[in-house]
Design brief:
Blueprint: H1 2-5, H2 16-19, E1 28-31, E2 44-46, H3 47-63, E3 71-74, H4 81-91, E4 95-98, H5 105-115, E5 119-122, H6 124-129, H7 134-137, E6 141-144, E7 153-154, E8 174-179, E9 189-193, H8 194-211, E10 218-221, H9 227-239, E11 243-245, H10 251-261, E12 265-268, H11 270-275, E13 292-295, H12 302-309, E14 318-325, E15 329-337, E16 348-352, E17 357-362, E18 375-381, E19 387-388, H13 392-396, E20 399-400, E21 403-412, E22 418-423, H14 434-444, E23 448-455, E24 461-467, H15 475-481, E25 492-493, H16 509-520
Parallel strand pairs: 1-11, 3-4, 3-5, 5-6, 6-7, 10-11, 10-12, 12-13, 13-14, 24-25
Antiparallel strand pairs: 1-2, 8-9, 9-19, 14-15, 15-16, 16-22, 17-18, 18-21, 20-21, 21-22, 23-24
Helix pairs in contact: 3-4, 8-9
């Protein structure tokens, strides 16, 4: 869209920290873990320290024969250094392929086959314990960020090396490859350019500039391989926001960190916010300084928003809800103040960004899109990725007259607000919206930590529930909460660990449905 194109020279992964040096070189970056590639740096970093480390790692990659234009697949233990290594690969002129540590080793091998002959950047523990032997045969070289193994090349930093200037590639060239969540099938490899990343950055940066005037501490729990982290950190580094970057979502550890650093803005996955509800009752008031909670991946359950914002002592705290996906970035959003969160429909994900993104809802089966007959959601944005690596035809099937089909169904209200009803593949006949049912039950039953409604073998809606501390579900409370809802099968109770999840903590609904159907047999 035209406001994304004006002056768009690209957002370059290899220069994010270097570009921040002129404004805020000693911006604090706090981690809840040590870096595998530089454990000696501890957990208190700065923009300056990260910029030097990225430059050193880029020099080490060049010394290991990584050349401009190469593909480098990064698959290692979960750690913030995954992002730093991606920056270093970019700085060396190569194209990073960021693969989630949550992917199974066999899936990584399948994705490597799709890439062609990439270098593989991993660690000794992951290579020996999680990856099949075939990955060595499908990689030009295997580089280790930590540890040593025969037949591999350790990534060694030279303390005497002089950082080379970053030669920025063309803004339209491939700059980063991420993958989709894989909620429906094998993940797709999404190709981003510096120009598409800048186009995603722009509406978010403008929104943050209008809403967050002071230098608030930003706490982030986002997958280290997700493109969302690129724009979030680029904004934070540019604005000089002190950062708290989390790897472990355990509520007790998070409460300790938040009590010490008092974040003003928190960005996390929706399901993670549910787990953090106990922080609202912590006597140390770790959420007292929160001005906004934010999520890009899915809508946050209204109950959770009310609980977390209720613990803030700020005058007007609120929720920033963004709607998007890996292929297009955020395309719509809304801001809701604390006093309205309890009355806002959880399916409402907001409005497009004027001059930057556009939305339409297309009829399914010839019926006008409404709450009862939701239509296909299509979007337009210059932030759209340019292709799926190795699957160009599959990418082209998602484009309809220049509009990108999101794979969701929904409708727009008379005021133009977009409501998302379901993923297209998750629609159950006779059920208006499984997501709406889940929101209602989460609001009525405080004991629920997660609920997912999926079809059983007969396509009947089946609620799968997880309770806090795995306590037994109260049958009387369940019967009361579901009395006015569409008929469903009896609930199936699982533990949180039993739910199949993606890198962004989304429940893999199709995998869960298959698991239930297998159990039924």
């Amino acid at each position: 869209m035209f406001l994304q194109r004006i002056g768009n020279r690209g957002l370059f992964l290899g220069a994010i920290f270097e570009d921040g040096l002129t404004k805020h070189p000693y911006q604090r970056i706090t981690l809840d873990h040590r870096l595998d590639v530089a454990p000696e740096m501890g957990t208190e970093l700065t923009t300056y320290g990260c910029a030097l480390l990225v430059a050193d790692l880029a020099a080490a990659l060049r010394a290991a024969d990584v050349r401009p234009g190469d593909h480098v697949a990064i698959y290692k233990r979960d750690n913030f250094d995954i992002f730093l290594l991606a920056c270093a690969v970019s700085r060396a002129g190569a194209v990073p392929i960021a693969l989630s540590p949550t992917l199974r080793g066999e899936m990584v091998a399948r994705l490597l086959r799709r890439v062609g002959w990439p270098s593989l950047l991993t660690d000794a523990e992951t290579l020996a314990g999680r990856l099949p032997a075939e990955v060595r045969d499908r990689s030009a070289r295997v580089l280790l960020a930590a540890g040593e193994l025969p037949g591999t090349t350790p990534l060694r930093r030279d303390p005497d090396s002089v950082p080379e200037p970053f030669a920025r590639p063309p803004a339209a060239a491939p700059a980063l490859i991420t993958h989709t969540s894989g909620t429906t099938d094998v993940p797709k490899l999404v190709v981003h350019t510096a120009r598409t990343l800048r186009a995603r950055y722009r509406p978010q940066a403008l929104a943050v500039r209008g809403l967050v005037r002071d230098r608030e501490t930003l706490a982030v729990y986002v997958s280290f391989v997700h493109s969302r982290l690129v724009t979030a950190l680029a904004i934070a580094v540019d604005r000089g926001f002190p950062l708290v970057i989390l790897r472990d979502p355990d509520p007790a550890r998070v409460a300790d960190l938040f009590a010490a650093h008092r974040p003003g803005v928190i960005e996390a996955h929706p399901n993670t916010f549910v787990q953090w509800e106990p922080l609202a009752d912590d006597p140390r008031e770790p959420l007292a300084r929160v001005k906004y909670i934010s999520s890009t991946f899915d809508a946050i359950h209204p109950r959770t928003v009310v609980k977390l914002l209720g613990a803030s002592r700020r005058t007007r705290p609120g929720q920033l809800q963004l709607y998007g996906q890996s292929e297009v970035g955020p395309v719509a959003g809304r801001v809701t103040g604390r006093h309205r969160t309890g009355s806002v429909d959880g399916r409402c994900v907001g409005f497009p960004f004027p001059g930057m993104t556009a939305l339409r809802v297309v009829a399914r089966d010839g019926q006008p899109p409404t709450a009862r007959t939701p239509g296909y959601i299509d979007v337009r944005t210059d932030g759209r990725a340019v292709t799926y690596l190795g699957e160009g035809e599959r990418y082209a099937r998602q484009v309809h007259d220049g509009w990108w089909r999101m794979g969701d169904v929904g409708y727009r209200t008379r005021w133009g607000c977009l409501h998302v009803s379901d993923r297209e593949v998750d629609v159950i006949p006779g059920v208006r919206s499984t997501l709406e049912i889940e929101d209602v039950l989460m609001s009525r039953l405080d004991a629920l930590l997660e609920i997912v409604v999926v079809p059983d073998g007969d396509r009947a809606p089946t609620p799968v529930v997880v309770t806090r501390d795995e306590a037994p579900l109260d049958p009387a409370a369940w019967a009361s909460a579901t009395a006015d809802l569409p008929g469903m099968r009896p609930p199936v109770q699982l533990s949180l660990a039993e739910l199949p999840r993606t890198a962004t903590a989304k429940v893999q609904r199709l995998a869960l449905a298959r698991m239930l159907q297998t159990t039924e047999r």
